[in-house]
TrEMBL record:
It is found in: Membrane. It is a multi-pass membrane protein. It comes from the Bacteria. Residues 131-276 form the O-antigen ligase-related domain. One of its GO terms (molecular function) is ligase activity. Pfam families: Wzy_C (PF04932). The keyword Ligase applies. The chain crosses the membrane at residues 30-48, 60-77, 98-119, 131-161, 170-189, 268-287, 294-312, 318-336. Keywords: Ligase, Membrane, Transmembrane, Transmembrane helix. This is O-antigen ligase family protein.
Amino acid sequence: MIPLALYIVLLTISIGVNVDEVGPGDALKTILESFAFVIILIGLKLMADQPTYDLIGKSIVIGAVVTSVVAIIQLGVEPYFMRIGDNRAAFGSVIRSNGIFSTEYFHSYFLIIAIVWVFTTIKNNLLKTGLVILFSIGVVTSFMRMSWIILALVLVTYLIFINKVALEKILFAGLAGLAMLLCVTIFYYQDIANSAVVKDRLTDSVGGRKGYYNMVLNNIHKKPWLGYGGLKNDVYYINLLRITGDRDRATATTGSLHSGYFQSLFEYGVPASICFTLFVLLSTLYYSRSFKNNLYFVIPFLASVIFMVGNLTNTFLFLSYISVLYAVHIGMGMGIQKIEETKILRPKTEYLK
């Protein structure tokens, strides 16, 4: 919690120093969002009630079933079925599935979180396998590169390092999935080769993101200690207009720096960025050790992995969508730790009586 507290303090100072460029409204909004993140985290910790945590997990799984089914219908039957947001192209005339969410990455990250809950809380192996397959198909329908990578990372981490499934079985399942994928590409090769996924994602230099990262590294020396306070400043405008040619991107009306780590560095300076990175890394490391004593800690551990890796090419700071899920799961992990400590202290107290 110390790195998080320091990060918020440095963020607040940075915004205060740069308030003329940031604007009072955006400054207040960002500061309040940072405190809201902490309130969510501490609130779930103080709750310290595992049945309530289980209910949250069940709600996530039920929601994941619904969004997966909707996503499959959107991909194979009617692309605008229950669609409430983006309609970005995948390949040919196929549109990326959003499920019941407004964007494909909200949909896919929610499903990956749900897979973590399924792995940890569902005992029936047949039901567990069926749900993981369903949710994985839902993630694939998003045609979002980073969500595919994180899904693979979560599956491998759980199956090999937590559940200790034999490597041969993992390789067999992987090869079987690859064979099925190759069969599909044979029929849709031309559409896939000319698709947005290939042209804009797989063959592009990280969607122009290297330009964003270079911009940060080339300009942070001007304000290394407290950064620029936000994205609404001349440095950001001039460079983003040069990189993207898009005025909405340059004025920060849309888009971001596509990395939580680089964005925290640019907005709030080197010390704040270090604190943010430490908070993410230390929470992941802490729960990676804790689940050996209680399997429930697998949930905050893998949620931390999702947040840590997702921030490499996406910006998830405070009340952005994935950050809320991250705060909820870290808070629940702290609550479970509190329950465990109570169990240890109770016998000692009874013994003293």
